[in-house]
Amino acid sequence: YYNRVVGLLERPKEKKLQHLKPEVLESVSARLTSEVPWPKFDETLGEYRDLTQLNSYDVIKNSQACFHLFEWLASSLLPEEERPPHFLDADLKAFQNREPFVGEPGTQLEVE
Questions:
Q1: Cα 103 versus chain centre, distance
Q2: Listed residue (74, 71, 37, 75) closest to 54, CA to CA
Q3: CB–CB of 53/33 below 8 Å?
């Protein structure tokens, strides 16, 4: 399983967007810019919209919501001694040894 995941993560490094077939690139682009059924209040219109365009902010809010749901379920359903850890030593070591993020001092985005 680990090797399969690593393989999936390595593949994007080998490929560039220009290597994609035009119809695949068009499909990916359409999915990244599509609207999804996600009710959201529009301040300008003063009402809720049934569809929301995909965006990074909502993706991270959903990720954070999943984290909080997981934490709440674990703390509500399991005795403290049976709860999963908040992180693993491997996670902490990976974070400490991580590649710098784009935007951190001394880094730059490489564009071909």
A1: 18
A2: 37
A3: yes
